[in-house]
Each structure stands twice: as structure tokens, then as C-alpha cells.
Amino acid sequence: PRPPNAFILYRRAKQPGIVAKNQGITNNEVSKEIGRMWHEEPQEIRSKFQKMADAAKQEHMKKYPEYRYRPR
Known about the structure:
The structure is a single chain. The protein is 71% helix and 0% strand. The radius of gyration is 15 Å and the shape is globular. The protein starts with 5 loop residues before the first helix and ends in a 9-residue tail after the last helix. By secondary structure, the chain is mostly helical. The protein has one domain (6-63). The longest helix has 21 residues, at 43-63. Helix 1 packs across helix 3 (43-63).
């Protein structure tokens, strides 16, 4: 699997709260809401998730040194 990017990490962090507040919400609606939230976040929050993504990428490189992304 590919290492997660900053938005994926943000989504993982925010999704449980969105689902808890909105019972019965579809995954598509969750994605739209989190996308809107991501664009409204201040740069310091987005930078925090970017640093987390960079760390995840470094860990991924250690774990899978031969990995190369090859889209179909």
C-alpha cells in the first residue's frame, strides 16, 4: 500500500467525529464535509498533518525499500 498523504491522515482523524454527530450519513457526504473542513483549516493545522505524512512516508520507505508506485 502507498503511504498516506496529509489529507488521508486528516480524514482518518476527523471521520469518527463526523459520523458520531451525523447518524446515518453516507460515506460520500462524509468525504464532502471533510474536504470542506480541510480547505478551511489554517495553515498550521495543515502543516501538522503534512509533517505526519512526511514521517509516515519515511517509515514506509524503511519498511518497503523497493516500493515504487506503479499505477495500472
